[in-house]
Amino acid sequence: MMFMTRRLLALAGVLVVSSFLVFAAMYAAPGSPENFLVQGRTVSPDVLAAIREQYSLDDPFFVRFWNWLTNVLQGDFGQSLANRQEVGDLLANRLPTTLMLVLLAAIVIVVLGVGLGIGAGVRDGIVDKVVLLGSNLGFAVPTFFAALLLMSIFSVGLGWFPVFGSGTGLLDRIWHLTLPALALALPSAAVVARITRTAIREERDSEHSVMASARGVPAMLVLRRHVIRNSMLPVSTIVGVHIAGLIAGSFVVEYAFTLDGLGTLLVGAVQRKDFAVVQAIAIILVAAFGIINLLVDVLYAAIDPRVGTRRSK
Amino acid sequence: MGPLGSIAVGFVALVVLGALLAPIIAPYDPTIGSVTQRYQGPSMAHLLGTDQAGRDIFSRLLWGARSSLTGPLIVVVITAVFGTTLALTSVWWGGIVDSFMSRVLDLLFAFPNLLLAMLAIAVFGPSLTTAALALSIAYIPYTARVIRSTAMRERNLPYTRSPQLQGISGVTITTRHLLPNVAPLIVTGATINFGFAMIELAALSFLGLGVQPPQADWGLMVSNGQQSLLKGYPAESVLAGLCIVLTVAALGYIGERLGGRAAAGRKA
Amino acid sequence: MLDIRGLNLAIAGEHSSRQILNNVSITVDSGEAVGLVGESGSGKSMTLRSILRTEPRNARVTGSITLDGIDVLALRGEPLRLMRARDVSMIAQNPHAVLNPVLPIRQYLVEGMHDAQGLSVRSARLRAGELLEQVGIDHVDRVLGSYPHQLSGGMLQRVVIAGAIAGRPRLMLADEPTTALDVTTQAEVMAILDDCRRELGMAMLFVTHDLDLAAAICDRINVMKDGVVVETGAPEQLRDDPQHHYTRELMDSRPAGVIWTRTAGGAE
């Protein structure tokens, strides 16, 4: 419990400091926001002043940061300069797609990565060789390249999946997001598969597994209770790191499949210097990244009895 | 290294050579095409055919190797220099310096790499330099973490302690004794980080936030070729993508042989 | 009862194979305690592992091992499993490695009795407590609920002994069972092991590097060097009239005044 509280406090600290840094960076950015707003048209100084007034651009830095931070804590992320919408509304519209994409990709990593890794770990010979080769190449495939290949083969070529868009309704959404999720998960699944394989092999040769066999425990039970179960300890950490990593990877895949997720919103906002949107997404992503990493550590402490006591000492 | 290792080293050498000699051996200007030459198949005139703007794909791949390699090179050099310096400084001084550095690194760890790069690009505008510099900052904690823990072990061994007792300065000890001991780690880490940087920079170019058209770059070519690919002309995207995959796989294999991901400070 | 004849074991390397055991012949009669003494690396542990067929995957075993006339080297699948579960048990050097770190002690014992030997879970749980009392453990319930990392090596080795006598096997294999333990608990654990064995009338093949220790508890001793049994005899005979010069060396190299020495040597 102490551990949880400490970690949550640390996360909150990181969030405040990083939002300050992000805010400061945007503040210091060359070029003034109102110029983007008027998009090069000549307007009278009065109009510019009105705009600066409306968006409180003339307040001192710390006042603006404080206002922004307190608003964010109340769920108000401000207004997008580019399309004059509430940032909160924009995010709310985009969030489901990204969440679903990351969730599906996480499932792919667990099922495909861990599954194939276990398969390759417990079997010698051809299965092992194929998985090993696949994972050696797979981790080197950029997600956007995987996206294009999958799209051209399964959507354009075979027509099994839609080419673009996120779909409506749950099943339609899953159908639209299957290829993106595969593309997003592929490199991670490859790495996870290889690490799982190694972990399984180490556990197979571990003395407690060998001795369990030597005590006459049936082979299937040794495999399940000693080999697979124990190898999941290191694997769970790796899977967690990769699921956290999906958050950033999802931008690229969303862009490749033109999905209406947070990633495409961020890319657009970066190109247009729509700082309110960039700040909001950055903070949300840092928070999500931190929470996933925290959850992984909690989960790890729950499945490994050695961790809890070590920490409490 | 074994046969696979030799192939990997050979392939990387070939790519580097292609990038260096691009101005000499590339048959065409990579940025200029001709509308009448669109979507040509492979021929003696165009070894790998042409793209949707009638540009020679082979020439573009050669020139593309340049930006695709310089970007990651910038990243790993900066990462190695700053990561090592930070790690050795904090190990040598210890105490407050060390815990302050740890906090800073933790803060950097809180940002996904690509996000950090995109924030920098939002501020400074899209370019390869911005992207590479931002990624360097994102990678520094990985390198610093590994080197710090190794150097910390070495720091407490007698061979670094006794010169200290003899009154030799910290800088001398660090550069003469600690640095050589972490050098292999730096090299292995750089090899593996190079692959990661190549993929992430290519991704940024793919998003239109890195290398800008009409310049040739592998990530940009994959993105440029997207429409052609969907229309049934896969050459540009697929060849550029394969270049990335093979280079990264080769570097990954070499890095793995040299010492593995752990040396790059990557958990995964 | 146990009859090892002309046992050879070679481990296949990448280019050549390494001979570990060379024409080893050892017999153990019912209820008899037989020692196998030699330096680490002499092949003692590998001999034990061959009896349970847990030699490394790349090992090639020839010769014969019979247990009451049954050819152990020909056993596969279920018959092999039943032999391991019922007839022969093993106590290894390092109990911390033998017990699965993420399972509580209770499950270790129940697993042996229920999953391996076929007792019902209920009776296995009941018997687990009795067994622990039998090996001199006081707070039975607390120990049963503990995880291996919470117990000392001596305590764990008692748990392993409890597991090893649970099925009342005819033969117990002990591989340096006290070497990895704290000096203060070595004698205690050894006494418990010896008592249990005598009480249940089990035969034992006892592997150690310590000739004195073997002499104290064994009826007969085999001296092994470099994978070859160089001499066999009763303890007194080896002490008073060693035939092989290596036996003499072992006798002479004993540290005076110390009965059981602790070495830092790892598993063989």
From TrEMBL, chain A:
PROSITE patterns: ABC_TM1. Keywords: Cell membrane, Membrane, Signal, Transmembrane, Transmembrane helix, Transport. One of its GO terms (biological process) is transmembrane transport. Residues 95-296 form the ABC transmembrane type-1 domain. SUPFAM superfamilies: MetI-like. Residues 1-24 form the signal peptide. The keyword Cell membrane applies. One of its GO terms (cellular component) is plasma membrane. It comes from the Bacteria. It is found in: Cell membrane. Pfam families: BPD_transp_1, BPD_transp_1_N. It is a multi-pass membrane protein. The chain crosses the membrane at residues 99-118, 130-154, 174-195, 233-257, 277-303. Gene3D superfamilies: MetI-like (1.10.3720.10). The keyword Signal applies. Its main location: membrane. Belongs to the binding-protein-dependent transport system permease family. This is ABC transporter permease.
Automatic annotation (TrEMBL), chain C:
Residues 4-251 form the ABC transporter domain. Gene3D superfamilies: P-loop containing nucleotide triphosphate hydrolases. InterPro entries: AAA+_ATPase, ABC_Ni/Peptide_Import, ABC_transporter-like_ATP-bd, ABC_transporter-like_CS, P-loop_NTPase. The keyword Nucleotide-binding applies. GO terms for molecular function: ATP binding; ATP hydrolysis activity. It is found in: Cell membrane. It comes from the Bacteria. It is a peripheral membrane protein. This is ABC transporter ATP-binding protein. It comes from Cryobacterium shii. The lineage of its organism: Bacteria, Bacillati, Actinomycetota, Actinomycetes, Micrococcales.
